[in-house]
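Input structure tokens:
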């Protein structure tokens, strides 16, 4: 049994961190309702390239492919769209709400200019795949050396 100095009150099982941790959990729960991914975080993307093309994949689950806009301005790929919130009946209330909804826009600087009229985009299982062929003028050219 732990006794406080100067007091005659026993502190059995007292943990000063319990209330602080409970308070932190409540604050996280409260603030999670108001935090949304920033423009730079959504959608998460991967980009890889070779001499012929760049490929961009983006995770955009729960979005209608018709609600996705793709455009190219110079060497910048712009992905935008929106995800609608789930409809909850009047007599229902959320117990937990973590899924993001709303409009998004993400600009991605590409490693080289692309042939914008040859860009292909596919959407399957929540993954958007965009193939961006390198512009012919930007492709590496092999130069042969002539002997004299």
């Amino acid at each position: 049994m732990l006794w406080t100095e100067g007091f005659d009150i026993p502190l059995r099982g007292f943990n000063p961190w319990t209330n602080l941790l409970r308070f932190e959990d409540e604050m996280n729960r409260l603030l999670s309702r108001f935090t949304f991914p920033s423009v730079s975080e959504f959608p998460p993307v991967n980009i890889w390239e070779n001499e012929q093309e760049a490929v961009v994949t983006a995770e955009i689950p729960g979005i209608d492919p018709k609600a996705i806009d793709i455009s190219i301005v110079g060497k910048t790929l712009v992905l935008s769209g929106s995800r609608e919130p789930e409809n909850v009946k009047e007599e229902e209330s959320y117990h937990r709400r973590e899924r993001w909804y709303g409009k998004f826009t993400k600009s991605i600087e590409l490693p080289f200019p692309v042939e914008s009229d040859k860009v292909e985009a596919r959407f399957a299982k929540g993954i958007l795949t965009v193939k961006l062929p390198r512009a012919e003028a930007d492709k590496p050219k092999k130069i042969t050396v002539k002997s004299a």
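The longest helix spans residues 17-32. The chain is about 10% helix and 30% strand.
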